[in-house]
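Input/output pair, single chain:
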Amino acid sequence: MRLLSTTYGRERGEIQGSKHMSVMMHFLFLLAAVLSCHGCPDKCLCFSQTVKCQNQDLDAIPHSLPANTKFLFVTGNNISHIGVDSFPTSLEMLTDLYLSGNQMETVDAMVFDNLPNLVRLDLSNNDIQTFSGRAFLLENKVQLLNLSRSVHNHSSMDVLQSVLQSGNLVQLTALDLSNNDLVILPDDIFNSLSSLVTLSLQNSSIITIQNGTLRAPPLLELDLRDNSLRDLPATSMEEFDLKPALLIRLSGNPWRCDCFIDDMLLWLKNSTQVVDVHNLTCSDPEALRRQPLLQLVPARLKCLGDMEGVLETSYVFLGLVLALIGVIFLLVLYLNRKGIKRWMYNIRDACRDHMEGYHYRYEINSDPRLANLSINSDV
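Output:
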């Protein structure tokens, strides 16, 4: 009986102790939350080491951010410009900065100088027109840069190129340039990104890959889906072969299935790098549309489509030239209509006189009396 009583008392004490411990932990958790929210900016929500200022129609980065902020979300606002005054105090614990959807146009020099441990930067869904090559610290720690849907004009490529070639992003491992209007990438745009392993160029209107564009970075993942690629240059395939661990995505491009795609077909059948190779289909000619590339027989591919296109273009050009000549001719006739009218009257009168003389001679020849009279008159 004593044993049961002792055991019961011990268990009861343990239960009470665990309750006290639970209450204490809950209190400490609330205290930590309150302390972390100390100095939280207006229109922002602060919790633990996260600050969220989302969809508040802000026109600048809020100041007075908690010093222990690690994750900062300032998205869906109207911040068109960020500069050195955007982060006036040092935030040494900040690693993740999200500034998407702010209609941002300008990123000034030294804007991130007070964020020495920044690792992930999201500038997607903006309209960046000016991006200083001095925006990042010389020895920064940025590993992920998201610029998706931020370059809406091909002329802004110079701005993007100055940032990527600044030499300040040596630790960058992932770059997202998807859903932009890039068209053609400069051949040396990625040369300074010595640590880049993941590159997304999906849906960026790219029409070709120039020689040397992807040679420098040690890529492991490359996304080229949904662009405007018609074929792959031989130099690009050679560069891909130099990176045997590279995984490539190419679906969604309008591949032209003619005799010029032979080398690409051979490469696709012998390479294991294209992870979506079974989804690659022909866009033209019409007879091969939606035909999987792996099912094509190179010996049966023709180049008539190109010749037909050239002939069609030539016919259109010839028609335009003839139409222009016709318009010019009609214009000349209109401007000289009075002179042409006089000329036509003169021709009419000359024809009338000639016909009257011919008619007179005919009457003489047909009447013997008039014929003899004409002979006597001649004598």
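Residues 1-8, 27-37 have pLDDT under 50 and may be disordered. The first strand starts at residue 45 and ends at 47.
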